[in-house]
Amino acid sequence: MKIDGPFRSADDLELATLSWVHWFNENRLHSSIGYLTPTEKENEYYREINSQRQSAVGELALH
């Protein structure tokens, strides 16, 4: 991620900061989660949770 400076205004700096935050939260590869992006890992997590819930639908619940 490259952020060019110097910035001409506070608005330019704010846009560059928002761009970096978006990259950090959505696009960076993170070594501790298997070199996936945070978004990919989150989607993987919810797919796993939803598949576990669906397989449990047909099972008898013991309450």
TrEMBL record:
It comes from the Bacteria. Pfam families: rve_3. Transmembrane segments: none annotated. Residues 6-38 form the Integrase catalytic domain. GO terms for biological process: DNA integration. This is Mobile element protein.
